[in-house]
Amino acid sequence: MDLKGRDFLKLLDFTTEEIEFLIKLAGELKENKKKGKPINPRTQPLLNNLAGKNIALIFEKASTRTRCAFEVAARDLGIATTYLDAAGSQVGRKESIADTARVLSSMYDGIEYRGFGQEIVEELAKYAQVPVWNGLTDEFHPTQMLADLLTIKEHFGRLKGIKLTYMGDARFNMGNSLMVACAKMGMHFTACTAKEYFPAKELVEQCRTLAAKTGASITLTEDVDAGTKDADVIYTDVWVSMGEADEVWESRIKALTPYKVDSKVMRNAGRQAIFMHCLPAFHDLKTAVGREMGEKFGITEMEVTDEVFESAQSVVFEEAENRMHTIKAVIAATL
Ligand code: CP
Ligand code: NVA
To answer: Nearest residue CA, atom 1 of ligand 1?
Structure first.
């Protein structure tokens, strides 16, 4: 499998086999790291010639996991990083994406980009002469998908046939990406949410076409009991994403509260079910936004109850750790 020089912009650009390869590589890199094994260029030729390279990390939106995962993964591979954000660089305000791409390509071997529209990262990739990795856009979060698929595989020993139910805003990056990931990997995806938060028709159609080939299925339902029954994975995300206006909180809380993940949902799914969340999560009042919404709307949690978040079925921190191993695989495979 040769992915050298490839961009990593969305899972739609990759075959099922290529995605499987990246998950497998991530698993090997994870084992290496856990055992403290040094990199062996003979048995791991992909890791050869990475030391001494440089990558640029552009973050137009905030990040904890994705930034740290890129920085630690790069350091483990002997690669140096430069972090650029909107306030401290010219990106977007004084310099176009096309010009930024050409400048950074002359100094760096790869570029990570987190920001707004998917068309921005696609434009960056078009003008860059080095691999570009999508660290999250409004539409897609592909590095998160690899971490989630690795976590599911570690837990169930397989991906094919796994039933994943996504509750909450299924029109944004996480709902879209999970639907594509399930379609590619032969998994059963259900968006269980209010109608206006279903993923866009066009993407649903595209995923259904993929699903017909892989044995996956795509279901959209407003019915919580039917949508979560016997699910292996119950997945949710914040109800308001980065970049959205503060004014949408009220209507979002109203529309999505029936789709909060609570112990009733987990019981309906069954004992085998795991709870997943890309994080950060509003499961208590220990954050500034959580407290603000708590005071305004008289609530103590949003998309998931603290009980489920802290339960034995919750794998959110394994999932977060896997961001690093999977991002390392993407860097190693494409550089
Ligand atoms: N899940 C995720 O992308 O987290 P960060 O926003 O902290 O990078
Ligand atoms: N939907 C969330 C995902 C964060 C990782 C956001 O875009 O803010």
So the answer is: 278
Q: For residue 92, what pLDDT is reported? A: 85
Q: What is the CATH number of the domain that holds 295?
A: 3.40.50.1370
* Domain region containing 201: 163-231+233-271+274-312
Please name the residues in contact with 330: beta carbons below 8 A apart, sequence gap of 6 or more.
8, 22, 133, 143, 146
Out of 90-99, 221-230, 315-324, pick the least confident.
90-99
- For 102-222, list the strands marked E by DSSP: 110-114, 132-134, 163-167, 188-192, 217-221
Alpha carbons 157 and 254: distance in angstroms, whole number: 38
- In a shared domain, residues 118 and 195: no
Given a cut of 70, whether residue 41 has pLDDT beyond it is no
48 pLDDT exceeds 90?
no
pLDDT, mean of residues 189-215: 98
Could you tell me if the CB of 66 is within 6 A of ligand 1? yes
Concatenated DSSP letters of 230-249:
T-SEEEE--SS-TTS-TTHH
State the distance from the centre of ligand 2 to the C-alpha of 241, rounded, in angstroms: 5
Query: Which amino acid does the sequence have at 322?
Result: N
Instruction: Tell me: do 252 and 134 sit in the same domain.
Output: no
* Ligand 2 contacts CB of residue 278 (under 6 A): yes
Residues 119 and 186 in one domain: no
In short, whether 238's Cβ falls inside 6 Å of ligand 2 is yes
Q: Which residues are catalytic?
A: 114, 141, 144, 237, 278, 323
Same domain? 168 vs 137: no
Residue 317: inside a domain: no
Both 82 and 203 in one domain: the answer is no
Mean pLDDT along residues 91-96: 92
Round the average pLDDT of the chain to a whole number and report it. Answer: 97
Q: How many domains does the chain have?
A: 2
- Is the shortest distance between the CB of 237 and ligand 2 below 6 Å? yes
- Residue 276's pLDDT is 99
